[in-house]
From TrEMBL:
Residues 19-469 form the Aldehyde dehydrogenase domain. Belongs to the aldehyde dehydrogenase family. InterPro entries: Ald_DH/histidinol_DH, Ald_DH_C, Ald_DH_CS_CYS, Ald_DH_CS_GLU, Ald_DH_N, Aldehyde_DH_dom, Aldehyde_DH_Superfamily. This is NAD-dependent succinate-semialdehyde dehydrogenase. The keyword Ribonucleoprotein does not apply. Keywords: Oxidoreductase. Its EC number is 1.2.1.-.
Length: 476
């Protein structure tokens, strides 16, 4: 790919037209083709990863973590190229893509340090002739399926704790964004991480890869980021071999503005949360609830700021919102808007009609609460606003969903902050803050938004077994 400064990043994977085609969502032009594996090859990969894992876990943790630190450095040294790939195949504005590279790299650095702290315990025994202790051991081969919306960070957020724990890690990146995945993996190899410890595979058929990852007995841990619909099915498949799973699934994040909020800060948070990656993140604010007394002020300030946002090619430095990932995504979001409008919703910001895979930022009021726009995950730059009066009814509405990933609210009243944070049935709550993702905090959802956590010390635990050892026959 001639746009890259470092030509080694994709040198070993680009094919001469055979394999998985990768397109630029900005203009649907063909970017590259990468190799695809059949099911038998992926099964063979798993067997190799099993051998690789055994050798990897025998390495002293300090050695594993040094290799990971080298990987982290190489990612930062190549951040412009990686950001370029993210923008080209995912559409995200370049400045956001660069943010993703740094965010993704931060997991590697953090887990390279945390891997050294995989502590067990000693436990006081009931009798003097026994000592009881626990040790932490790598769970084995870990497999993952990752999405297109964060083609780098969703891989490193899973791979880094896996490698730090002593697991090997095999991953199917999204067919839409494999270039970033292969490039970041190439840097791991250049850092010295073996090919049978970290591997990306693109299947001839996504379903086949999912089957190997979820049914193969040698895969002991399966991690997925994607929709609740697909996650539910994969989780059932994993049941056949009782695998440990982490599921980062869909969300329907409420964003609540109380009448004691700092409105300027709420507007800033709303824009940051809603329009990140054109609204295509699981933690994007999905539905907005604004209390009566501040409703007019909030929407007036919001409209003024949203209409300044520039929609365009992610490669343009001034772009705030890039294209959606595909034609189908655009159609789905347009249908949601039209359906809500057909039931009385009104757009109150500037209407812009855009060609290609773009959807302009859209603010809708008078939206009925039971519409699919409010009840499901939008995954687009659309912001439905609902007026409310009473806090307890508001919380009940916010919790009335199968999802429980992220929620946001703005208030300056300390009692309310504690009360509402406690009562929201969500795995992550942003208070006076629209961007909450960080490597140091546990990312994950309640209810049908999934299980398990990524990032933080909880993220390492997902890849570790706790083994209890009882030493008996002691003479004390
Ligand atoms: C996601 O959308 O799945 C991840 C978003 C994040 O890490 O902030």
């Amino acid at each position: 790919m001639k746009q890259l400064k470092n030509q080694t990043l994709l040198a070993s994977v680009l094919t001469d037209g055979k394999g998985q085609q990768v397109f630029n969502p900005f203009d649907d032009s063909l970017l590259a083709t990468v190799p695809m594996s059949c099911q038998a090859k992926i099964e063979h990969d798993v067997v190799e990863m099993e051998a690789g894992q055994k050798a990897w876990q025998k390495k002293p943790v300090s050695e594993r973590c040094q290799l990971m630190k080298k990987w982290h450095q190489l990612i930062l040294q190549n951040e412009d190229d990686l950001a370029m790939l993210i923008t080209l195949e995912g559409g995200k504005p370049l400045k956001e893509a660069l943010g993703e590279v740094r965010y993704g790299a931060s997991f590697i650095e953090w887990f390279a340090e945390e891997g050294r702290r995989a502590y067990g315990n000693t436990i006081p025994s009931a009798s003097n002739d026994k000592t009881i202790l626990t040790v932490k051991q790598a769970i084995g081969v870990a497999a993952a399926i990752t999405p297109w919306n964060f083609p780098l960070a969703m891989i490193t957020r899973k791979a880094a704790p896996a490698l730090a724990a002593g697991c090997s890690f095999i991953c199917k990146p999204s067919e839409s964004t494999p270039l970033t995945a292969f490039a970041v993996t190439e840097l791991a190899y250049q850092a010295g991480i073996p090919k049978d410890v970290l591997r990306m595979v693109v299947g001839e058929n996504a379903h086949d890869v999912g089957e190997v990852f979820t049914y193969h007995p040698s895969v002991r841990k399966f991690s997925f980021t994607g929709s609740t619909l697909v996650g539910r099915k994969l989780q059932m498949q994993c049941a056949s071999t009782i695998k440990r799973t982490s599921m980062e699934l869909g969300g329907n994040a409420p964003f609540i503005v109380f009448d004691d909020a700092d409105i300027d800060s709420a507007v800033k948070g709303a824009i940051a949360s809603k329009f990140r990656n054109a609204g295509q993140t699981c933690v994007c604010a999905n539905r907005f609830y604004v209390q009566e007394a501040v409703y007019d002020e909030f929407i007036q300030k919001l409209v003024a700021e949203v209409d300044k946002l520039k929609v365009g090619n992610g490669l343009d430095e001034s772009t705030d919102i890039g294209p959606l990932i595909s034609k189908e995504a655009k159609q789905r979001v347009s249908d949601l808007i039209e359906e809500a409008k057909g039931r009385g919703a009104r757009q109150i910001n500037q209407e812009r009609s855009l060609e290609g895979n773009f959807i302009a930022p859209t603010i809708l009021i008078d939206v009925e609460h039971d519409r699919p726009l409010v009840q499901g995950e939008i995954f687009g730059p659309v912001l439905p606003i609902i007026r409310f009066s009473e806090e307890d009814k508001m919380i009940a509405m916010a919790n009335d969903t199968i999802y429980g990933l992220a929620a946001y609210f703005y208030s300056q009243d300390m009692n309310r902050i504690w009360r509402v944070a406690h009562n929201l049935e969500y795995g992550m709550v942003g208070v006076n803050e629209g961007i909450i993702s960080t490597e140091v905090a546990p990312f994950g959802g309640m209810k049908q938004s999934g299980n398990g956590r990524e990032g933080a010390k909880e993220g390492l635990e997902e890849y570790l077994e706790t083994k209890y050892v009882c030493i008996g026959g002691l003479d004390r």
